[in-house]
Amino acid sequence: MAVPFIDVAIIGGGPGGLALAQGLRKNGIETAVFERDHVRADYVQGFRLRIRQRAIDALEANLPPHLFEAFLATVGRSPAESVALDENFNRIEHPGWGGTQEDAHGGKSLSRITLRQVLLSGLGDSFRPGNTFERYELQPDGTVIACFADGSAVRTNVLVGADGANSAVRRQLLPDFRIFDTGVRRLAGKMTLEDAARHGISPLLLDYNAGIRPSTGHSIMITSHRVDPEAYARYGLIGANDASHRNIAGSHFDNTTSYVWWNTAYEAGELGPDSVLETLGGAQLLEVLLAHIGHWDERIANLIRYTDPSTVAYLKVRSSEPGAIWETGPVTLLGDSIHAMTYFRALGGNSAIYDAGLLADELSAARRRGKPLLEALRDYEDAMRAHGYEAVQTSLSAMQNNVAAGRALHTPPRNQSPLP
Ligand SMILES: Cc1cc2nc3c(=O)[nH]c(=O)nc-3n(C[C@H](O)[C@H](O)[C@H](O)COP(=O)(O)OP(=O)(O)OC[C@H]3O[C@@H](n4cnc5c(N)ncnc54)[C@H](O)[C@@H]3O)c2cc1C
Predict the structure, then answer these.
(1) Residue 340 forms part of a structural domain
(2) In 74, 216, 379, 387, which residue has its Cα 20 to 30 A from 53's Cα atom?
(3) Residue to mutate, 223, 336, 394, 402, ligand 1, most ligand atoms under 8 Å from C-beta
């Protein structure tokens, strides 16, 4: 049977892959996104992203105007002002906390669910869930055949690996590339603002970005995400109404409820062994954290105590090692697949969307203005590596400063690619 052909095949329908598909379609370039999962069910779906101007600009360039309008109208709000408190709820001075970083938008807070809905809008049959990429084969005529787990295949001029930190495309293209466990563990959870009112949570923790900086131990970052449900209804972007979300219990895909959330990070082992913590449910994880901070002021402890346990999760923080260079060919990489980074600067998703903008520009120069395809891909890769590797490095440093006050972290043995 003949293998179907598509000009640009994208593996992975995360923010990077979907933004690229939108950009290519806007430029009249034939494309399809091959995504493994029917429903994106990783727990971080329930949390918001901090958004930066570079991603907003890329979305404006790559989305049709009505979708960019929907994106802007449904962006959530986070507090514009920040406060630093010690564990006794005394205000403290904390230089560097709350300052605007580069192109960060302090007051904007982007629901991952909403972003996904916006990016999927209008893709129609170009979005092909249920396709797990396995491997590719380079063809003598310069095309590539991408092979999927169900035995199907597609031939393409450009294969884009946008399949995240554990990318199967990257594993074949760059077999020595390493993703490592940084030795940092993150706990986070959220509470609806309705519940916060019921439990009398202090307005200082709801109306400000509050950094709790204890005299000893690790800090907790608290902020809120406020949304306008009417805007969601107006643009048909209510997450829980999505047919593919209907059978999923809990509030995982609810993007119309405002909430306060917190996150904290410890070094591996400080809260207990991974082998135990990874088996615990949300309520037990909250108990573990309270055993460490239960003596803090009740106003802080209550936020943790009354957190919705179904939103609590324990995460091993991983990073890639920046610096890989390869010879440009018809297979390229984008987003976390090539520059996975710690979340400490809120740059990973923004960088993936920014990459999508760079690649859409280069591919449209190739398809519409006669730029040689390999030259376009090389220019994309140079630009992507320059900003992506720097972001990986600064995200690692930010993590080090936050969790270990700048001293070296106790990293586990470095033999952990691919991810479990
Ligand atoms: C706790 C936490 C907080 C964060 N906060 C922020 C923030 O505030 N701001 C920010 O910018 N970033 C943040 N990030 C980073 C951000 O989530 C990622 O950088 C971003 O999701 C990367 O997008 P991507 O499209 O490259 O990859 P992904 O989002 O990982 O998407 C990859 C897609 O590929 C699919 N896939 C994987 N393998 C295959 C396969 N073999 N075949 C087909 N499909 C496949 C997956 O199912 C997935 O849909 C945070 C990350 C974490 C963990």
Answers:
(1) yes
(2) 379
(3) 336
pLDDT-flagged residues of the chain (< 70):
41-43, 45-46, 95-101, 246-251, 410-420
Q: Can you tell me the distance from the alpha carbon of 404 to that of 410, in angstroms, rounded to the nearest whole number?
A: 9
Residue 411 lies in a domain: no
How far apart CA 365 and CA 375 sit, in angstroms, is: 10
74 domain residue, yes or no: yes
Query: Probe ligand 1: pick from 20, 22, 33, 35, max atoms within 8 Å of CB?
Result: 35
Q: How far is CA 84 from CA 41, 65, 101, 153, 304, in A?
A: 34, 40, 17, 54, 17
What integer pLDDT is reported at residue 253 of this predicted model? Answer: 77
Which ligand 1 atom is nearest residue 131's CA?
43
417 part of a folded domain: no
- pLDDT value at position 237? 73
The domain total for the chain is 1
Q: What is the 148 CA–ligand 1 centroid distance (Å)?
A: 20
In sequence order, the β-bridge partners of residue 148 are: 133
pTM above 0.85, yes or no: yes
Helix, strand and coil content of the chain, in percent to the nearest 5, comes to 40, 25, 40
